[in-house]
Amino acid sequence: MTLKTLQRSESANGLAFHRSGSGEPVVLIHGVGLRAEAWFQQLPVLTRDHEVFALDMPGHGDSALLNGTAPSLSAYVDHIAGWLEANLSGPAMILGHSMGAMIAVQLAARYPTLCKGVVALNAVYRRSDAAREAVQNRARQMWEHPEQDRVSAPIQRWFDLAGDAHEVAMANLCADWLEAAPAEGYATAYTIFSEEDGPSDAELDSLAVPAWFITGDGDQNSSPEMSRQMAARCRFGHAEVIENSRHMLQLTHPDAINALLEQFISSCKQPSGVHHE
Fold first, then answer.
1. Which tens digits make up the pLDDT trace of 142-195?
2. How many C-beta atoms lie closer than 10 Å to residue 87's C-beta?
3. Could you tell me if 211 and 236 are in contact, meaning their C-beta atoms sit under 8 angstroms apart?
4. Which active-site residues does the annotation give?
5. Which domains does the chain have, with CATH numbers?
6. Which class for 61: exposed (0-12), middle (13-18), buried (19 or more C-beta within 10 A)?
7. Is the pTM of this model over 0.90?
């Protein structure tokens, strides 16, 4: 599938981003090994009424690696928070996928004045011992054997390759992004992702804005139960599970995701209380 590369701007701190639309700001943060284009099916909907910023995570796409700091999730959060402070005039609705969801939730908790609401797609929360061992082993292999295939295994986990033509097309597109991802940025982010276990309970408890957790019923590593548990801790938490889907919801099920994002944006205008499902 051919997809036009999004035009980027580069900020003073080395973070590259695509800006489109006008209105209240929405910030999009992709997952490990991907790039701003991972949100291409959300942009036409979100830009109808909002100014949308699709970021390249540090070390991904056109964004520079973080310098002068030991890699950590907090370092990524601080870096993006600094970008928000420098580039936006008010709080944003922040949407993240996978590791981007980790960043989005921690940012909302640690920098509440910068966030009007948060969506976590396919987020991790309290992995099992077996899942933790598996993801950490994959991270070690990326450093110890950089020559090995880093694309086939995630594509098989993230997509139903026996699915319909759209799912297969999105799998092929995603494989192209993973293949092109800068090796050091990919491995660094994946190591951080493997060492994190989702937001702390204190972070979830502190959120005073709408916090939506969305995942696929077939995503074993970011399971429906994880999303439900996180939503249950949040004052304005809400969980949604998309049927017949896995890890790349914004690509494989854009209509369902876009409809939910529009509902989420409405909830940010007047949060009315706890809403769990």
1. 999 988 888 999 999 999 999 999 999 999 999 999 999 999 999 999 999 999
2. 18
3. yes
4. 98, 122, 247
5. 9-269 (3.40.50.1820)
6. buried
7. yes
